[in-house]
Structure prediction request, 1448 residues.
Amino acid sequence: MKRLAILTGGGDAPGLNAVLRAAVKTAVQVYGCEILGVRNGYDGFIEPGGIVPLGLKEVRGILPRGGTILGTANRGNPFARKVEQDGEEQVIDVSDQVVSAIKKLKVDGVIVVGGDGSLRIAQEFYEKGVPVVGVPKTIDNDIGGTDVTFGFDTAVNIAMEAIDRLHTTAESHHRVMVLELMGWDAGFIALHAGISGGADVILIPEIPFTWQAIVDKILDRVRRGTYFSIVVVSEGARPRDGGLVYRQAGDEIYAPRLGGIGQQVADTLQIDTGLETRVTVLGHLQRGGSPTAFDRWLCSRYGAAAVRLAAEEKYGRMVALQGTEVVDTGLQEALVVPKRVNLESDAVQTARDLGISFGDAG
Amino acid sequence: MKRLAILTGGGDAPGLNAVLRAAVKTAVQVYGCEILGVRNGYDGFIEPGGIVPLGLKEVRGILPRGGTILGTANRGNPFARKVEQDGEEQVIDVSDQVVSAIKKLKVDGVIVVGGDGSLRIAQEFYEKGVPVVGVPKTIDNDIGGTDVTFGFDTAVNIAMEAIDRLHTTAESHHRVMVLELMGWDAGFIALHAGISGGADVILIPEIPFTWQAIVDKILDRVRRGTYFSIVVVSEGARPRDGGLVYRQAGDEIYAPRLGGIGQQVADTLQIDTGLETRVTVLGHLQRGGSPTAFDRWLCSRYGAAAVRLAAEEKYGRMVALQGTEVVDTGLQEALVVPKRVNLESDAVQTARDLGISFGDAG
Amino acid sequence: MKRLAILTGGGDAPGLNAVLRAAVKTAVQVYGCEILGVRNGYDGFIEPGGIVPLGLKEVRGILPRGGTILGTANRGNPFARKVEQDGEEQVIDVSDQVVSAIKKLKVDGVIVVGGDGSLRIAQEFYEKGVPVVGVPKTIDNDIGGTDVTFGFDTAVNIAMEAIDRLHTTAESHHRVMVLELMGWDAGFIALHAGISGGADVILIPEIPFTWQAIVDKILDRVRRGTYFSIVVVSEGARPRDGGLVYRQAGDEIYAPRLGGIGQQVADTLQIDTGLETRVTVLGHLQRGGSPTAFDRWLCSRYGAAAVRLAAEEKYGRMVALQGTEVVDTGLQEALVVPKRVNLESDAVQTARDLGISFGDAG
Amino acid sequence: MKRLAILTGGGDAPGLNAVLRAAVKTAVQVYGCEILGVRNGYDGFIEPGGIVPLGLKEVRGILPRGGTILGTANRGNPFARKVEQDGEEQVIDVSDQVVSAIKKLKVDGVIVVGGDGSLRIAQEFYEKGVPVVGVPKTIDNDIGGTDVTFGFDTAVNIAMEAIDRLHTTAESHHRVMVLELMGWDAGFIALHAGISGGADVILIPEIPFTWQAIVDKILDRVRRGTYFSIVVVSEGARPRDGGLVYRQAGDEIYAPRLGGIGQQVADTLQIDTGLETRVTVLGHLQRGGSPTAFDRWLCSRYGAAAVRLAAEEKYGRMVALQGTEVVDTGLQEALVVPKRVNLESDAVQTARDLGISFGDAG
Prediction:
């Protein structure tokens, strides 16, 4: 193995730099191998200045830093790139250009650090003959084949600290505090942060909720003398009856303010419980900043393992955590069934045992 | 001095419990004085169960905790309370009831821990003969007569940490990150957090901005090769030309999404700079959680000093920090001129020297 | 199941309160079962006031707090208690007293939250007929049968943050910074924190080190132009040649200052590398404070699962994490082989690949 | 003003980089002035490679980082440098060499960022004709002429967080926890952190303590049913009767373990109170890591103000905070009376009112 390339794709996630550092150190120190950084995702292969050599010097001091020194701002999927031509939007396929550029670089392997989207593209390139190795990144934790993706632990800790902060105000001021967290398809962040932060209601995409159930939960707490509640909502959570956008209260019809589901939940709870309600949308705060110990640890192992995989020419595979061991799994298999919260797991059962409502009872 | 009462009013601020603890410890240990807690602001005086004795046991362990053990959820200004009678909203004055209740409690003094609103009410009660002592609380730092209010240092640190998190994502992903912070009338939080976090643009209520100036600043950075920017906005910041709610871009008219000024700034910058822009509204996260060392230190001194003021029968006064000393100042004088960011201060000059734009040039 | 007892034993670990809260909520809300708190470990069974009923009220607000509301200060192993009689120390066995007290309480099960020591005692009581269920707690992570114990993730994060702090000073001031961490028998904290914090040398009990190897590593860095190093040491790490307490440098014999292994490593490195060296002993800071999200999450699941185990009358068993699931395992099997760092694991391999020295080469 | 030099001297303090960044930005952007970085304190003037140009690029991204990009590892006071000649240690004066090197650089001013030691040297150079401007840095806060030095607020927050961590263990385990903090001559860190963290005993250099007084305080708490205590000790605190190194307990003489005053306090309390006692020495953890908002804010203002002072040719002066304004003060005046904790201040009175013992009563 003489030369590797590595790229980071998709949304930001704490730990990207830690993967790069471990990969570079392992490639250089263990295998005496050159490693090229590809800037801004797959685009770097075909853009001027898109390839930068990575040495020990380039990765010095980046372990604790969020973001990625390679950047990920790109123009989208090379197999289906939207471009404007003659004033109209068209979709073109530049993947052959990328493949040809990769060939010219004479790399033995390409390490792709990315989420669901970037890894699917990696798999497509693999099928076109590119020797790829995947590293599963996403704060949402929704990739199969691994116990956990990196970035998730940091995101959950940030979300939990937000709940801790909201808790004291909620309690002192008798408020319902709604916190919207990331998670379009999978509710892991909301589930973990909600349990860790002591939420009363957790709404996740995997469990369609009813408005009545969450109102009942809040009012039940009031009846027991507790005048505040913490409601954690995945951005992808939806009511079972999806149509409920305009709501009636007394004689009047209220149009909820535009905004995400968090805002809608807050508006509804304010009207239907009569309690003062506030919403916070944590947004990009979940993606940035210094990674937790677990994420730095996992990323260091992932980065080193990815280089080892390449050295063993195990292409089309992805590094993964299973129990306490970093192993590898087929990229395709990992992507076939996206990971979702298992409703039969002890984790969900624990939430119910603690009295947390998922909005699905009644 | 045989008996004191203490209440906490208005929005949440980190350090309320630290004030209560210090006041109770000082009253009991130094003066052998009884101290009564008034629940939910001034309402506690006239509601059943609104008065609770506070002893050493009640304040044990509360120093590091956000919120207030007394609660502050109340029904508003006793001099102008909105009530519903016969289906119509009316404004009534219950202040005499409060005064009479206070007299029955036979307290030597009433310590009011609150912001601008609560302290103004305290002054009104003082003018009606109630022996009040004030403690200036507000995360906005907009009360005169004191170098700083408590809660502010914690809020600024939380806001700065948010900027730190956004920074890495902004840089990796070539984004404009807009962060809306608290501050309706005074821009202290945005100014301090913006400088501490390394913001590129800071918009505050004291300096009306122009859309053009902030667009220019962002584009100027792009011309120098920096494809990201951090924009910090006080919730009370406003464009000089206030009417710019609907904006034109090319042939089309865009209606910015509803939402606060942060959202409007983000929408405008996205359209006018062509850069991907994201907004985060920090909201109540600035009000909760464990206070910083400075706030706990200040609150401990404020709480003890307030009891000393009462012991010296210095009513109608407020504790205040001047330089390194806690002193006292007239409540009325403190409220007469609300504190605003001093545009001639070295702090604002420093921001300009660092290259930060307030949106007022051009 | 009508009545349970729960106790916390041994050293402090972040998450004890989270286990108690989850156990109480599950017992009361799901099983309608009474649950008794046993104060100060097994002692509470036989001391006046040692049994306190735990209800929803008692566990309110304790999720984010370190320590344990039950206390763990006790007088040691009931099977071999050291007492002073007639001026002499004697060892007595009070276990029958404990068993008899437990019988009188008419509890269906006793949940023991503890580390290696407390769980071994639990096993002994189980063999005497007490229906015990174990919950594995130790910041050292040295209990078998489970992927991880609770308290460990928090300890590792605290240790990593300490390394982050030392890093900047080491780099600016050209210093060798030695950080002594907990871990008498197992080096997990040092290994995880060392990798996460970017240490250059990690010394753990599982790998006896040579003084020469660590000196060589530091000097090798100097030769490459890096005048600082971070050395992380488990308190139980030992040199291969254990006798090296007094050391010779030139013509003189130096007696290292008394103190732990961290101090000895620092003294030796200062003498043998000529670089300024400082030692920090993190000590109890690793045991206290608010648990991380992972620990709160794990503890909540452990607490609920322990009650379920009791409800199913699965006594003599311990809750455990395997992969992403909380399961149960035999208490005796878990204790038979204490967990140690697996020298063949990818984690240790990763450390070596990153260039970290364990002091075992040369 | 065409050219400035800037150096950082002495121990590490959070915020050094923030000062450098602000000074460079102000010099370059406002005054179009060149600014030279001097590496490793005054040594950089006379060592090869000791002068590096600082531009906007060099200070990018350093605002949140601890340490100093210029380094401070140096060989001591240029006016009295210890060197080894012919096997013997001699003291030589290299200050003329430094002065001459500074002249050759043709700088209009030299900004010295340092503590008491570095600023005294700056004053000596000023007296030799070097146009110096001082910036007061020290985590100990013991420099006169300014309300506060930078680095102090961060150190106090780190120390307070340590107390928070120790608190829960102390309480759960009935322990006396002793925390040794920095402060040889001034007890500000211990005083502020002790009050903010809720300590029971605070020992500072300004108040010689008696062993009996602190034992009494701990035992008094035990009598009131509180079996734990938090004792915060400045490293420079000393007993009134300084000779008490060996102590008698019953018939035996105990030699306290070697170690700092923290260890001695812990040993004594363990023997004399019979309670389990643990000591933690926070050491360099107080010096490193990312600065708090206050320190970043202050450093940014200090850095900009120092450049302004130089532009106005106000040499021999030091930037300072007075109230809310950054002003300047004579370097010599500032150094004449080192700042100590004012025993008559409301801060010390507050500590006493809260029931904290300084070990001086009885």
Summary: Chain A touches chain C at residues 22, 25-26, 29-30, 63-64, 147-148, 153, 156-157, 159-160, 164, 192-193, 195-198, 290, 292-294, 296-297, 300-301, 304-305, 307, 322-326, 345-347, 349-350, 353-355 (CB under 8 Å).
